[in-house]
Design a protein that fits this description.
Layout (H helix, E strand, L loop, with lengths): L42 H4 L1 H31 L5 E4 L3 E4 H27 L17 H17 L6 H13 L1 H7 L22 E3 L16 E6 L9 H8 L1 E5 L8 H5 L5 E5 L11 E3 L4 E3 L6 E3 L5 E4 L8 E2 L1 E3 L5 E3 L16
Antiparallel strand pairs: 1-2, 3-4, 4-5, 5-6, 6-11, 7-8, 8-9, 9-10, 12-13
Subcellular location: Cell membrane
Main location: membrane
InterPro entries: QcrA_N, Rieske_2Fe-2S, Rieske_2Fe-2S_sf, Rieske_Fe-S_prot, Rieske_Fe-S_prot_C
């Protein structure tokens, strides 16, 4: 755009200048600091009855938190793990999980809500502005911080509002008990539970497929058979717990192929019985290599040699498969001569 297109009155030569010596009014700075608005007192600042009401509200919230924590502990101890309830609109849920989540949530919420209500209604709400300072504070600044802290402590009325103080300390003291109670799952020690299974002297070996007692002729060379102790039934309430320890796999080997002398002594006509539970993380073993007499765990490929005492030849398993000593009784059935000589499954701290 050229100067010819600009109106003459807008050209510099035609602009009106203020007379010399005239003082022009400065334009207001749009970015000036407006400062803090006037402080408005809350009703609790001027009415002690309102302050007392707020104090009771805060104390009530802290008390509810304490009761909820007690409810958490009572639910954890008293509600069975397998109990379910119907909760609309969720549906059927675990009663224990629902109670634990509800009580712990209420306990934590009430502590937070009580602290917020306390700060908004009873603590000092006077706004204070302070200039930024260097990272390394001067002695005067540190003294001022300590003085401000002491002033804040006094204005919080923690010493004067004893009801709030006591209930807050009670709530904060009880909430950590929720975590302490959860440590209950780490104990008590299992005692002999991991060392004993459903096997004992005289119990017949029952074929898990036919549910009939096993005879030596039922086990062919090169075959793999799964067995369980006599007297166990799938409809028993503790069947899954017991079979997880007592599950047995039976293989028939030629006596000349058995390398371990104790394994040969504990066998019956070349039939050897080993725990089916992998000694790594407890997976059930089900893969058998007929030519090598090896069994393979499908979870992490731990491999055991059933012709050499069930020892580990590959994989992360820590020790050999426990062997069950068996014999043929007077009626021609295979029966156990006792329990496993060592705990089945993964190694644990009491293993010798």
């Amino acid at each position: 755009m050229s100067t010819q297109d600009i109106p003459e009155e807008n050209l510099p030569s035609e602009q009106v200048h203020a007379p010399a010596g005239t003082v022009t009014k400065p334009v207001a700075d749009p970015f000036a600091d407006p400062g803090l608005p006037p402080h408005e007192h809350r009703i609790q600042d001027i009415d002690e009855r309102a302050a007392k009401r707020s104090e009771r509200v805060v104390a009530f919230l802290f008390t509810v938190s304490m009761l909820a924590t007690v409810g958490f502990i009572a639910s954890y101890v008293g509600i069975p793990v397998d109990k379910n309830i119907y909760v609309f609109p969720i549906g059927h849920v675990s009663a224990l999980n629902f109670a634990l989540g509800l009580t712990l949530g209420v306990a934590l919420f009430c502590i937070g809500a009580g602290a917020v209500h306390w700060a908004r209604t009873l603590m000092s709400d006077v706004e204070m502005a302070d200039e930024r300072h260097a990272i390394e504070a001067e002695p005067e600044v540190r003294a001022k911080v300590l003085a401000d802290f002491q002033q804040g402590a006094e204005e919080s009325a923690l010493g004067r509002r004893k009801l709030i103080r006591n209930t807050m300390f009670g709530a904060l003291a009880l909430v950590p008990l929720s975590g302490v109670v959860l440590l209950r799952d780490l104990g008590p020690l299992p005692g002999t539970k991991l060392r004993k299974t459903a096997w004992s002297a005289g119990k017949l070996l029952i074929n898990q497929n036919t549910m009939q007692p096993l005879r030596p002729e039922d086990v062919q060379v090169g075959s793999l058979t799964f067995a369980m102790p006599e007297g166990m039934k799938e409809e028993d309430h503790d069947f899954q717990t017991e079979i997880a320890k007592a599950a047995l796999m039976i293989v028939r080997l030629r006596p000349e192929n058995i390398k371990d002398k104790r394994e040969l002594d504990w066998s019956a006509d070349g039939i050897v019985a080993f725990s089916k539970i992998c000694t790594h993380v407890g997976c059930p073993i089900s893969l058998y290599e007929q030519q090598t007499h090896h069994v393979l765990c499908p979870c992490h490929q731990s491999t055991f040699d059933l012709s050499d005492g069930g020892r580990v030849i590959f994989g992360p398993a820590g020790h050999a498969l426990p062997q069950l000593r068996i014999k043929v009784n007077d009626k021609g059935y295979l029966e156990a001569m006792g329990d496993f000589a060592e705990p089945v499954g993964p190694a644990y701290w009491e293993r010798g």
